[in-house]
Amino acid sequence: MSEEILLADRFEAERPGLRAVAYRMLGSLAEAEDAVQETWLKLGRADVSDVKNLGAWLTTVVGRTCLDMLRSRTSRRESPLPEQDGSVRLPDPVVTALPRVDPEQEVLIADSVGIALMIVLQNLSPDERLAFVLHDMFDVPFDDIAPVLGRTTVSTRQLASRARRRVQGAAPAADTDVARKRHVVDAFLTASRGGDFEALLAVLAPDVVARSDGGTLVPSILRRGASDVASQAITFARFAADARLILVNGTPGVVSFDGERPLSVMSFTIRGDRVTGLDILTDPDRLATLGLTA
Fold first, then answer.
1. What is the dihedral of CA 86, 236, 93, 222, to 10 degrees?
2. Read out DSSP for 82-134?
3. Are 114 and 27 contacting, i.e. CB atoms less than 8 angstroms apart?
């Protein structure tokens, strides 16, 4: 087997992990693929004969690529932060059918990287995001992250610590009982379809927050409080001829269709028996890229 083929095989073995890094960094499935492809091109131009751990080397390379993409995105101000100036920008959801997730998707969304956590990561600065994602999620040593950021190891450690505090404060651990979460989502879906306002209030936390990202054509919506969110859920349910349970980033969610056309993907944050967060992607352009079929 030639050296080029062997290197390509080793890269393919690392690809799912690299996509997972890039997805957490960028929040976009398409951009994550672009970052992984750029990493492959960089590998082809590099001399890695002395690299002892190719997986670690590739992880830092894809991290640097994502950092450059985030900095470019920030400088162009093309992607508003969630809730900034009334805008809501949700990360791409990873949608799979119940009850199983395919192995490559499992890698992509391992460690319960739900939409709520991805939203918090979006609010970190590019440098904070890199330090936190590489160290806290992928165990990359600070000594390896520091050169990517052009910082000292001590400074990089402080950066990750600051990001960690922000993540823990904004996205506390959600319920990990999948069966219970599915029961809660079922109850939400049944109440919405039936227009049962009281049943919706029973399943929504009093301080629930619902975000809806409609893209450039549909206004973003941010609603707070059980009454407001329940009213909106009932209104929206009337437009969805077909809604069904799915997995969104590995946790029970809902996809709605009008005939063959996807209308929305809903992601739930659940604690105990109540929905505390509801994130809804209704952007038709982004929905079209997810491969959703009725």
1. 20
2. TTGGG---PPPP-EE-SS---HHHHHHTTTT--HHHHHHHHTS-HHHHHHHII
3. no
Q: Do 121 and 129 contact (CB within 8 A), yes or no?
A: yes
What's the number of CA atoms in the CB half-sphere (13 Å) around residue 35? Answer: 30
pLDDT at 78 over 60: no
Q: At what angle do helices 29-45 and 54-76 cross, to 10 degrees?
A: 130
Listed by start position, the domains of the chain span 3-76+92-170, 178-288
Determine the pLDDT at residue 85: 45
If you search the block for the tokens 């000594």, which residue do you land on?
143
Side-chain-side CA neighbours of residue 209 (13 Å): 10
More confident residue, 189 or 97: 189
Q: What is the pLDDT of residues 80-130, one digit of tens each?
A: 444 444 567 899 999 988 765 556 665 555 555 788 889 889 989 999 999
Q: In a 3-state reduction of DSSP, which class is residue 220?
A: coil
Pick 3-76+92-170's CATH classification: 2.30.29, 3.30.450, 1.20.140, 2.40.10. Answer: 1.20.140
Q: Are 54 and 45 contacting, i.e. CB atoms less than 8 angstroms apart?
A: no
Q: Is 187 exposed, middle or buried (0-12, 13-18, 19+ CB in 10 A)?
A: middle
**190 vs 199: CA distance, rounded Å:** 9
Phi, psi of 95 (to 5 degrees): -105, 130
Tokens of 154: 């001590």
Fold of 178-288: Nuclear Transport Factor 2; Chain: A, (3.10.450)
The pLDDT, as a whole number, for residue 209 is 93
76 three-class SS: helix
Same fold, 3-76+92-170 and 178-288: no
Decide: 258 and 240 in contact? Cβ < 8 Å: yes
